[in-house]
Structure formats: structure tokens, C-alpha cells
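Q: Please design a sequence for this.
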């Protein structure tokens, strides 16, 4: 959304796609739907995305009112969905489910990087190989969503 948003769209889908603006914003929103993440975690989750583009997309999503930052500690901030961003949860979940259900028919594999990141952080904290990570998620409705838990979305 680096460009000025048009004042008129011919249909709601055109408007929605203008706001989401391509695959990276949607991918970022999908991870933030599962849980808030620090910038470094998003960098790990989307390794093909440069720092410059990730920063731009997060800035665009914040400017659109879909994402905000919140202090997790005195030194750490996390990105999380706003109420408006959470209103996209069902749509994002359908995109996720469609990709999961149809990837084989396109001859591609899909990963679960958020789950892998969480497992690595838990292992590192338990082994003491790195300092325990500060929580980068904020519990909502009493539990933390998991990337592969489609039913709970």
C-alpha cells in the first residue's frame, strides 16, 4: 500500500486485494493470526523476504490499521493483529486450508515454519543453548493457537 489508495473500487474483492497487496502481506497476516511475533521471528518465518520489504510490509499493514506493535518487555516489541486485522482470520484460515488441501495436486510441499520455530525455541530454552526467549505472544481466550490447528481458527 505504498501507493495512495484509490477512492473508488469497482467491487469489494478489488478493494480487499488492494489492501492485502500481494502474497507477503497475506503471509505476514497469516502468521500474526496464529500469534503475535517479534520482527526477528517474522524474518525467520519468511526467509525469502528481505529486511527492507518486511519492514515496508509491516509499515503498510500498520498504516492500514491491520497490525500494531505492543511492548512485550522493556526491550522487546511484538507485532499483532488489531481488531480489524483479526476480522480477516476466517479468510486467512480458508487460504491456509486450501493450500494445505491442494498442494499435493500441484506437486508442491508446504511447511509449517511457525510450528518449527516454536519447537526450536522451546528446545533451546530447555537445553540452555540460548537464553530463554521472552514470550512473544499474548494469550487470548485462554490459549495460544498453533499453526497446524485448523479447527481452532
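A: Design:
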Amino acid at each position: 500500500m505504498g501507493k495512495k489508495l484509490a477512492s473508488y473500487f469497482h467491487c469489494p474483492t478489488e478493494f480487499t486485494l488492494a489492501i492485502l497487496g500481494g502474497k507477503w502481506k497475506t503471509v505476514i497476516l497469516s502468521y500474526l493470526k496464529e500469534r503475535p511475533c517479534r520482527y526477528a521471528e517474522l524474518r525467520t518465518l519468511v526467509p525469502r523476504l528481505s529486511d527492507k520489504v518486511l519492514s515496508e510490509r509491516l509499515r503498510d499493514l500498520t498504516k492500514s490499521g491491520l497490525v500494531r506493535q505492543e511492548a512485550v518487555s522493556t526491550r522487546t516489541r511484538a507485532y499483532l493483529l488489531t481488531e480489524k486485522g483479526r476480522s480477516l482470520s476466517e479468510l486467512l484460515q480458508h487460504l491456509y486450508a486450501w493450500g494445505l488441501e491442494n498442494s499435493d495436486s500441484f506437486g508442491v510441499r508446504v511447511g509449517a515454519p511457525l510450528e518449527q520455530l516454536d519447537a526450536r525455541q522451546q528446545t533451546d530454552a530447555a537445553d540452555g543453548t540460548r537464553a530463554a526467549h521472552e514470550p512473544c505472544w499474548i494469550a487470548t481466550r485462554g490459549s495460544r493457537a498453533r499453526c497446524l490447528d485448523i479447527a481452532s481458527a
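Q: Thanks. Anything notable?
A: The beta strands are 67-71, 77-81. The radius of gyration is 16 Å.
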